[in-house]
Amino acid sequence: MNKPLFLGLNALFLLTFPAICSAQTSTESKTKHKFSIAADIKLKLGTQNVQVQDFTSIWYQNTQKKSEVEVLVRQFGVRSLVNGSEKVNMSMSGKVIKSTQSGSTTETPLAKAPPAQQALMTDTFDKTLTKISVDEEGKELKRNIVAGKGAIGIIKNGGIINNVRFFHPRFSKTKSWTSKRVYSLGNGQSISGDLKYEKQAEKDAAGNTVVKVSGVMTKESAQSGVTMKNLKYVFAGSQSYDEARKVWTTGKISVKLTCDLVSQNGNGKATGSIVLTLNEDKTK
């Protein structure tokens, strides 16, 4: 009498067991973050004195799949001032471009954007841009760019991948370690070097491990409108790591920079400060 019921339950178990195992052993996790840059740079070139202030925010997502991390960008915004006068104020996502001038905002939806911008919007946002092979501590082993053609320019020239990966070094079992980081200078230029990471005794407000970050990056020369020489970036700050979730959650790092400037209009110097911040993005 109970045999059909037993067979039915057995069949149901065989059908659902693989799904149950998959749910229990799945290593995929998704985390959303916001990476921000606030830069205040003073340029003295010949007889000219210029102050440049840049504010950039990038909303992105990391998807961890076993030993691979997939990175996608959700949106970004840029605001730039020269000697206190706003020159750029725009944001872009896969749906719309917003540009503000003299207090008036213009919105251009994807369907009405020029072909080149349509390609940029379609290929850059909400799609995997790169797949990164990592070891068990999260150290990057290899990057595989999988983005469409429309996104290649912003990856190569804008350095968007380097910047959103800045706050995601490996997390070592040891008390202190070093990790190579790359910071984008724009226009396809970057500066890199080893930063030191030191676990602190105290936890942050969320109970996560606080890690002190410090180090110096130097570069002999770079091009960005003018020739920059003897670049020096000094990094100091901290970031927090959730050891249970294996995720970097927040961070704030200050950067002091100096470099020499060389141009046809004369030589000079650049000095300034940059504040880099990381926050988890809780929006859907």
Q: Could you explain the architecture of this structure?
A:
It is a single chain. With 284 residues, the protein is α+β, with helices and mostly antiparallel strands. 16% of the residues lie in helices and 62% in strands. Strands 1, 2, 3, 4, 5, 6, 7, 8, 9, 10, 11, 12, 13 and 14 form a 14-stranded antiparallel beta sheet that branches. Helix 2 (115-124) packs across helix 3. Residues 1-25 have low confidence and may be disordered.
Secondary structure elements and pairings:
Layout lengths: L2 H23 L3 E17 L2 E18 L2 E15 L2 E9 L2 E6 L2 E6 L5 H10 L3 E7 L5 E6 L3 H8 L3 H5 L11 E11 L2 E15 L5 E16 L1 E17 L4 E17 L2 E15 L4
Helix content: 10-25%
Note the beta-strand portion.
over 45%
| CATH level 1 class label | Mainly Beta
Largest pleated sheet? 14 strands, antiparallel
Quaternary structure state of the chains depicted: single chain
* Beginning-to-end CA distance, first to last residue: 51 Å
As a whole number of angstroms, the C-alpha radius of gyration is 23 Å
* CATH fold naming: Lipovitellin-phosvitin complex, beta-sheet shell regions
Report the principal-axis shape.
globular
How many domains? The number is 1
Q: Any guess at the CATH architecture?
A: Roll
Low-confidence stretches: 1-25
E-strand count: 14
H and E order: HEEEEEEHEEHHEEEEEE
Q: Structural class given helices, strands, pairing?
A: alpha+beta
Q: Determine the number of helices (DSSP H or I, runs of at least 4 residues).
A: 4
Mean pLDDT: 90
